[in-house]
Inverse folding.
């Protein structure tokens, strides 16, 4: 294993490995996880790489611990990540909530497999999309990105760390087994700018650890910085002290949501294919969007004017983008490896103005382009 | 680090309603939520006296708690302090400690937090010999949620969820800690403030996973339901049954109601920590690649 933090150059690697390399390039130096396929290649690569570049790898006793350790490491001042798949994702929900409530930057990659429960170890699925949004208790916002190739897995992991620090929130990489195991060319630039953390400037006795700057995000004082702060998962005031009033809850939870919700331009990523003259738009993400691309080709060959809106950012859901695309077509086709999760968001955003057909499969295999084509022909 | 054997009469501040360890406390959060007669205050004070006596820079410490009455400790110390999730303070501390290896991590939590919901993290942190100091205030029940039966409730103990007396075999915490590989293991009652302080100083000056069990009264719940009287009576009851036996055979350290039980320092050993072993690996890799 190379003893170089950023592996600049062209490589042949799978999506999991690209996530691992993206994390290192972004400055991640702490990784904690529990083994689960199809995430293993992320952990295995980082187990080999981190000790050689001054980082820490630790295999925890379960995913509850892995996520908790990541939150702790982030407070310790490191850029920290974990990775898992369905069953482990469920266990991580508890301390994902802690990260949201304590405004802890961290990254969690979920290489989705088909559930519920142990489901199909370890065949592809996209059934955790709603869990990514609402899986921990309480009301919150976070950011979730969906790569559809190893290259994008690398790029989005770098981006995920930058966003986590910018918004002081967990960022999810919602990939899937096929992208995770797919080998492709991955180009790593000479230099990747490491995400930087906003640290407090003033004297400790005047510092209010949860008093936000103008953009609603407070600077972060880490362990040993001299600020002697208190961090709690309880509802708290700007001092970080528990405040059990409904008013404090209202102020805090609204701010935690607004600090993300109000800046969509900074994290909303997407790609449009052949939408200029399209009468039907496919909306998809991750591996399903790759199949959908092929379906666009097939449909065009048959003379149907079809395009694709590939969502890269799934959460917060890009309502306006979807509305804009929907406004210019006569029908929508949502393609995903579950029985309709993101399609509910599409429906909600579009408010029934355009007919929508869902091309669903609960996972175990990816869609066949012909199935998507049938969906297109249904909506035309 | 030597421990002062004798402390002078309580400083005048105490009688004036101030705490001599005020400099380590978030005085703007006092009064605390703990009940009168609870063992938590004295245990926390012993920790603060230990820090003071050792002259530790508070910035070199991090206090990590789970959820429960004991979990509130993190909220009262004027240090970097983390009130995490129920059962996970050790897992959180694992990340924090590995990110900041020179910070002294002190985990303060309850018996339910550390040994029911968090039991798995406890045994694995001890197995890895992570360099952290775990103080468990064992009040024999779940205090915060109103006195339910827990993993350390003695046989026969009456709790809200063992209304006819507990019939589950309890954990013997010091035995669990030692078996899992803890490098330092001690048990005292919350009456033994000086011994608690001394134990905490030893823990803070040793490396590796150290564990201190503090048998403490919970007059509001356990004490009341088991007719142990006021907090002071309950404390006396425990202290009267506590017999000091350093280095005791851990299989003899069970706590059985109505019988004497052993307190003392049971394990004090040295072995490489997770961090040291990791660093050795790193050095080995560097040597190999420079060859
Ligand atoms: C996941 C989860 N389950 C349950 C609770 C409710 N809860 C809060 S404190 C507590 C028990 C605390 O008991 P212990 O650790 O012994 O601490 P004590 O209050 O006795 O000091 C429980 C069950 C919770 N906060 N989180
Ligand atoms: S309920 Fe028990 S443990 Fe909690 S503060 Fe009161 S006496 Fe202490
Ligand atoms: Mg308890």
């Amino acid at each position: 294993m190379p003893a170089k933090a950023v592996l600049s150059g062209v490589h042949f690697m799978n999506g999991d490995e690209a996530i691992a390399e993206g994390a290192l390039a972004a400055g991640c130096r702490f990784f904690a996880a529990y083994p689960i396929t199809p995430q293993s290649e992320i952990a295995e690569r980082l187990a080999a790489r981190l000790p050689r570049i001054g980082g820490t790898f630790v295999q925890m006793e379960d995913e509850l611990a892995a996520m908790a350790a990541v939150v702790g490491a982030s407070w310790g001042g490191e850029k920290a990540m974990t990775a898992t798949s369905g069953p482990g994702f469920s266990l991580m929900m508890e301390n994902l909530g802690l990260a949201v409530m304590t405004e802890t930057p961290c990254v969690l990659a979920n290489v989705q497999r088909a559930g519920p429960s142990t489901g199909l170890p370890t065949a592809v699925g996209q059934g955790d999309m709603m869990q990514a949004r609402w899986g921990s208790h309480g009301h919150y916002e976070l950011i979730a990105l969906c790569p559809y190739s190893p290259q994008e897995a690398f790029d989005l992991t770098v981006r995920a760390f930058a966003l986590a620090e910018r918004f002081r929130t967990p960022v999810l990489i919602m990939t899937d087994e096929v992208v995770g195991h797919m080998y492709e060319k991955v180009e790593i630039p000479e230099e990747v700018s490491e995400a930087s953390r906003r640290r407090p400037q003033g004297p400790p006795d005047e510092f209010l650890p949860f008093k936000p700057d103008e953009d609603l995000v407070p600077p972060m004082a880490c362990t040993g910085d001299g600020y002697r702060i208190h961090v709690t998962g309880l509802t708290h005031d700007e001092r970080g002290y528990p405040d059990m009033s409904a008013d404090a809850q209202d102020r805090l939870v609204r701010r935690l949501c607004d600090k993300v919700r109000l800046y969509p331009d900074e994290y909303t990523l997407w790609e449009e294919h052949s939408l200029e003259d399209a009468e039907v738009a496919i909306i998809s993400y991750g591996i399903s969007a790759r199949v959908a691309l092929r379906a666009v080709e097939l449909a065009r060959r048959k003379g149907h004017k079809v395009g694709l809106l590939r969502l890269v950012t799934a959460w917060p859901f890009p309502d306006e983008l979807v509305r804009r695309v929907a406004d210019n077509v006569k029908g929508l086709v949502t393609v995903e490896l579950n029985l309709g999760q993101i399609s509910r968001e599409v429906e909600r955003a579009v408010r029934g103005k355009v007919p929508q057909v869902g091309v669903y499969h609960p996972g175990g295999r990816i869609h066949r382009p012909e199935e998507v084509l049938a969906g297109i022909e249904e909506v035309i | 680090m030597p421990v002062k054997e004798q402390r002078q009469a309580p400083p005048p501040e105490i009688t004036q309603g101030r705490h001599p360890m005020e400099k380590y406390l978030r005085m703007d959060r006092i009064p605390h939520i703990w009940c009168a007669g609870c063992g938590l205050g004295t245990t926390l004070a012993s920790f603060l006296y230990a820090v003071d006596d050792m002259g530790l820079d508070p910035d070199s410490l991090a206090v990590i708690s789970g959820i429960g009455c004991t979990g509130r400790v993190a909220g009262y110390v004027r240090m970097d302090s983390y009130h995490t999730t129920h059962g996970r303070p050790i897992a959180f501390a694992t990340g924090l400690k590995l990110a900041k290896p020179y910070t002294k991590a002190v985990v303060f939590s309850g018996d339910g937090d550390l040994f029911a919901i968090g039991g798995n993290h406890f045994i694995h942190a001890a197995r890895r010999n992570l360099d952290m100091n775990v103080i468990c205030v064992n009040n024999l029940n779940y205090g915060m949620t109103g006195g339910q039966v827990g993993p350390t409730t003695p046989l026969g103990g009456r709790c809200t969820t063992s209304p006819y007396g507990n019939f589950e075999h309890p954990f013997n915490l010091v035995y669990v800690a030692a078996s899992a590989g803890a490098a330092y293991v001690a048990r005292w009652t919350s009456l033994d403030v000086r011994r608690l302080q001394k134990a905490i100083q030893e823990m803070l000056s040793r490396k590796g996973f150290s564990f201190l069990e503090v048998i403490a009264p919970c007059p509001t719940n356990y004490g009341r339901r088991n007719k142990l009287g006021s907090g002071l009576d309950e404390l006396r009851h425990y202290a009267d049954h506590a017999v000091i036996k350093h280095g005791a055979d851990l299989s003899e350290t069970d706590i059985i109601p109505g019988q004497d039980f052993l307190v003392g320092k049971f394990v004090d050993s040295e072995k490489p920590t997770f961090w040291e072993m990791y660093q050795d690996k790193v050095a080995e890799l560097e040597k190999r690649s420079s060859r």
The first strand of chain B starts at residue 61 and ends at 65. Residues 247 and 266 of chain B are 4 Å apart (CA to CA).
